C-alpha cells in the first residue's frame, strides 16, 4: 500500500513537472491532455487520473510554479535579517531568478498574468491570490524596513511594491523578448535605487 502511494505521488509530480514546463511556453490554457500524454508516454486517462479534470491539472501546474518561485525568491528574504538586508536579498534572488528561471519562457507568474488577466475563472482567481500573497510579502518587508529606520516611514509600502514589480516585469520582457544581457543587472541597480530614494533616517 505504501509503495503504491509513493508511486502515485511520483507519477503526479512527474505529470505536474511536464505540465508546468509546457504551460510556460504554451500558456496554462494551452495545456492539452493529449500533448501531455504523448510527451509522458502515458494514456490520457493516466495523465488526468491523479487530478480528476484538466482544470485541476492546470491549477496544480500553477501552484507548482508558485512554489518554485517562493523557494527561489521568498525564502532568501525570510532568511535574511529584517529591513534593508531582507529587501536586498529578495531583489538579488528575484533578478537571479529572472535570468536562471526554471521555465523556458521566463517568469511563469508574469507570463500567466498576461495570459489570464482578462479571463475570469478559477485559474485567474488562483493566480490573483498568488500575486496578492507575493505583493503582501513585499509590502511586509518594506514595513519592517520602515520600522528599522531603513526606509522613510511616510512612504506608502505599496508604492514601493509597484515600483519594484514594474521594474521586474520590464526586466523579464527585456530578457525574454529582447535578449538583453544587461536587463538583470539594470533591474537590480534600479530596484536598489528605488529603496535608496525612500531611505529612512538610519540609512542617510
Automatic annotation (TrEMBL):
The keyword Manganese does not apply. Transmembrane segments: none annotated. It holds the Pfam family TetR_C_13. Residues 83-190 form the Tetracyclin repressor-like C-terminal domain. InterPro entries: Homeodomain-like_sf, Tet_transcr_reg_TetR-rel_C_sf, TetR_C. Gene3D superfamilies: Homeodomain-like, Tetracycline Repressor, domain 2. This is AcrR family transcriptional regulator. Keywords: Transcription, Transcription regulation. PANTHER family: HTH-TYPE TRANSCRIPTIONAL REPRESSOR NEMR, TRANSCRIPTIONAL REGULATORY PROTEIN. It comes from Saccharothrix variisporea.
Amino acid at each position: 500500500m505504501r509503495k503504491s502511494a509513493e508511486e502515485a505521488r511520483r507519477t503526479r509530480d512527474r505529470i505536474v513537472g511536464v505540465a508546468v514546463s509546457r504551460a510556460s511556453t504554451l500558456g496554462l490554457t494551452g495545456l492539452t491532455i493529449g500533448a501531455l500524454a504523448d510527451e509522458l508516454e502515458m494514456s490520457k486517462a493516466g495523465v488526468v487520473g491523479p487530478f480528476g479534470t484538466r482544470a485541476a491539472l492546470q491549477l496544480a501546474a500553477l501552484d507548482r510554479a508558485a512554489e518554485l518561485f517562493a523557494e527561489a525568491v521568498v525564502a532568501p528574504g525570510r532568511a535574511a535579517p529584517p529591513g534593508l538586508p531582507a529587501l536586498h536579498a529578495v531583489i538579488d534572488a528575484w533578478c537571479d531568478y529572472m535570468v536562471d528561471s526554471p521555465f523556458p519562457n521566463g517568469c511563469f507568474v508574469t507570463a500567466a498574468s498576461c495570459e489570464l488577466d482578462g479571463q475570469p475563472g478559477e485559474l485567474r482567481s488562483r493566480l490573483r491570490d498568488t500575486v496578492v500573497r507575493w505583493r503582501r510579502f513585499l509590502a511586509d518587508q518594506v514595513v519592517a524596513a520602515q520600522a528599522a529606520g531603513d526606509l522613510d516611514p511616510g512612504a506608502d509600502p505599496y508604492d514601493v511594491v509597484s515600483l519594484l514589480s514594474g521594474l521586474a516585469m520590464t526586466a523579464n520582457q527585456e530578457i525574454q523578448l529582447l535578449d538583453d544581457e544587461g536587463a538583470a543587472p539594470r533591474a537590480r541597480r534600479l530596484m536598489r535605487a528605488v529603496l535608496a530614494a525612500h531611505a529612512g533616517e538610519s540609512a542617510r
